[in-house]
Design brief:
Blueprint lengths: L3 H28 L9 H31 L3 H21 L3 H28 L14
């Protein structure tokens, strides 16, 4: 079974993670720190932006996958994925100093994760109960 939302989100997340890693590498070069953070606030901020991404993204991708498996692909899932990824791109700009980006990124991450979690918990209880038909015994 192909999960288009999950596959798209996972591919995009990999690209965002690569972008975050490149940003950390650029800051390491400009701050002349090859290992650790050297106590350099700009480098620490970039490292934390990538770490924050890694802390939240796996569970959200798992939620996308199990929801898509359980209930199928939907416009709402595409929308949630888009909002989540946009928030994850805005967050590191906030860590670099654009405070609104950090706030928007954090808020969208939390709201999408909360919504997906609630929906994932609700799915089994929203489905109609499935009754297994019993065999009829033929009397001879």
């Amino acid at each position: 079974m192909i999960l288009p939302v999950t596959l798209t989100a996972t591919g995009a997340a990999a690209l965002i993670n690569l972008w975050l890693a490149i940003r950390v590498g650029q800051k390491r070069k400009s701050e002349q720190v090859s290992v650790g953070d050297g106590g350099k606030e700009p480098l620490i901020a970039r490292m934390r932006a990538q770490a924050n991404f890694i802390e939240y993204t796996p569970i959200v991708l798992i939620l996308f996958a199990v929801i898509e498996l359980a209930s199928g692909t939907s416009f709402a899932l595409w929308l949630a994925m888009s909002v989540f990824l946009i928030g994850r791109v805005l967050h590191p700009f906030g860590m670099d100093g654009w405070k609104a980006g950090r706030m928007i990124g954090t808020l969208t991450t939390f709201l999408i994760m909360l919504g997906l979690a609630i929906y994932a918990i609700a799915i089994p209880y929203m489905s109609p109960l499935r009754v297994v038909p019993t065999e009829t015994v033929q009397q001879g």
